[in-house]
Design goal:
Elements (H helix, E strand, L loop, with lengths): L5 H24 L4 H23 L3 E3 L1 H11 L1 H21 L5 E10 L5 E5 L8 E5 L4 E14 L1 H68 L5 H36 L7 E3 L21 H22 L4 E14 L13 E11 L7 H67 L5 H35 L7
Parallel strand pairs: 1-6
Antiparallel strand pairs: 2-5, 3-4, 5-7, 7-8
Length: about 475
């Protein structure tokens, strides 16, 4: 459907104005025949009838599936979770970079206003005793390259596995947020439809009240009914209208919440196209399978992550081996004449080497940290077991609730049929002066209660069905 209808509507309105202007002009000059005038008026009426149709095009019809998809695309929490997953990908690359060769260029310049001295044997200079000798020059300028590479560090390799697990955890977190949003959107969607159905049922009762008012009005004119009876039914009608108005206000609030959840502007007009249908049997969820639950999968990955962190901490006791190399030029001068011509001012220096690091004692730091990881693993395992038990309990409760609500729903369907028959018979008997007005109003109240109870029972069935899908990890297939 078009996003806007204003251009078409404005064109139609302009066309209508031209037709009307032509009509009056012709009417004034008396050049238009009666048939032509009727044709113009018919065209105007047709165009006026088109305008509401164009106005209706601005309504967005949204199914439950579409609402969930819109929410997943626009929800800020899900967007941030996706960005966090993307961020963890770069964190993985950051961790992997430690295993690549590292190359660095540098340049150091130093001015020694007091040159270091070293005590040397005086015999070297024809003197006795220790003689202080200056070591170095006033100016020292060094530039070159440094290179290093990790040849073996087991904790680095485990850190890469940790970074990969973190990426998986962020993906599962984003999935969990999607499921939570779908659950919330579905609940609000069902609530909006329930409120709309309640309004519909009250409108039906209001129509029955209008019929009764017509009967009372006729009876009052014939001297059969009392004016007070008419007033009582009129008050009942006003009370029904008040309930409808309150439900209208509540529906606007619920619809506003739904728009917020799925990322639609609050001033957009929407129509919820799905109906609250139900099946007469229990959905195919007899055997619960919690392995697809994102929360449990997330806990499993957190347990793996903690185990890897514990392993990396223990691997810090292992030796590590690295290689390094350096090539640089060193210029030492007593005068700052590096840029003057003459002999070489810089001398080439280079080396390569290996570095072996063997941890011996760290004051029990790694041991204490390992104990912390052991406790964290126990906590996560306890949490997972408790979470799985909660899922099983919630699934059983949802299954029982579905059965109970479905039975109540079927009973309410029967109650509506009985209440409708009772109301029609009572109304007919009242017309024949066999039953009193109080009997009619009591019958009408019973019909109202039966219809509203049916709507509430239907909501309970849909919520229980939603909980069953949640227990099986089927929310994203809704």
């Amino acid at each position: 459907m078009p996003a806007t209808v204003m251009p078409e509507r404005e064109l139609i309105e302009q066309h209508i104005m031209r037709i009307i202007s032509t009509y009056y002009k012709n009417k004034q000059s008396k050049l238009t025949t009666e048939m032509e005038m009727k044709r113009i008026l018919a065209t105007v009426l047709i165009m006026l009838g088109i305008l509401p149709a164009f106005a209706q095009d601005s309504i967005k019809y949204i199914s439950l599936h579409q609402a969930c998809k819109l929410g997943i695309v626009s929800n800020a929490g899900i967007i941030n979770a996706k960005l966090e997953t993307k961020k963890s990908g770069y964190q993985l690359k950051e961790t992997q970079s430690k295993l690549y060769p590292q190359l660095e260029g540098y340049s150091d310049f130093s001015y020694y206003y007091a040159i270091p001295q070293m005590m040397m044997p005086g015999e070297m200079f024809g003197q006795t005793g220790e003689v202080p000798v200056q070591i170095g020059t006033k100016y020292d300028w060094t530039y070159g390259f440094k290179a290093s590479v990790t040849l073996y560090n087991q904790s680095y390799y485990t850190s890469i596995k940790v970074a990969k697990r973190m990426q998986t955890i962020n993906e599962l977190t984003a999935l969990q947020k999607k499921e939570e949003l779908v659950y919330e959107v579905s609940q609000v969607y069902f609530l909006c439809k329930t409120t709309a159905n309640q309004i519909t049922q009250l409108e039906k009762n209001k129509q029955n009240t209008d019929r009764l008012l017509d009967i009372l009005k006729l009876q009052e004119e014939n001297g059969i009914a009392r004016k007070i009876d008419y007033s009582k039914v009129w008050v009942t009608k006003n009370n029904l209208q008040t309930q409808i108005d309150n439900l209208d206000q509540l529906l606007q609030q619920q619809t506003g919440l739904l728009k917020h959840l799925i990322g639609i502007k609050l001033d957009d007009r929407i129509e919820l196209s799905d109906s609250l249908s139900f099946t007469t049997g229990l959905p195919d969820f007899e055997k619960p399978d919690f392995n697809r639950q994102s929360e449990l999968r997330l806990l499993d990955k957190q347990i793996e992550l903690t185990g890897l962190n514990r392993k990396a901490n223990r691997q810090a006791y292992l030796p590590s081996l690295s290689g390094s190399g350096q090539l640089y030029y060193d210029g030492q001068q007593n005068e700052f004449d590096y840029f003057k011509g003459g002999g070489d001012k810089f001398y080439k220096v280079g080396f390569i080497g290996l570095s072996l690091s063997i941890p011996i004692f760290d004051g029990f730091e790694k041991r204490s940290k390992t104990k912390q990881y052991d406790i964290e693993l126990q906590q996560l395992q306890n949490t997972r077991k408790d979470t799985e038990n909660n899922y099983l309990k919630d699934f059983i409760d949802a299954k029982n609730q579905y059965n109970t609500s479905l039975k109540a729903l079927l009973r309410q369907l029967d109650n509506i049929k009985v209440a409708e028959e009772d109301y029609n018979i009572t109304l007919q008997n009242y017309r024949q002066q066999v039953m009193s007005l109080s009997d009619v109003m009591l019958s009408e109240n019973s019909l109202t209660e039966a219809r509203l109870s049916y709507v509430n029972a239907l909501l309970q069935v849909k919520n229980a069905e939603l909980d069953l899908k949640k227990g099986q990890g089927e929310l994203l297939n809704y």
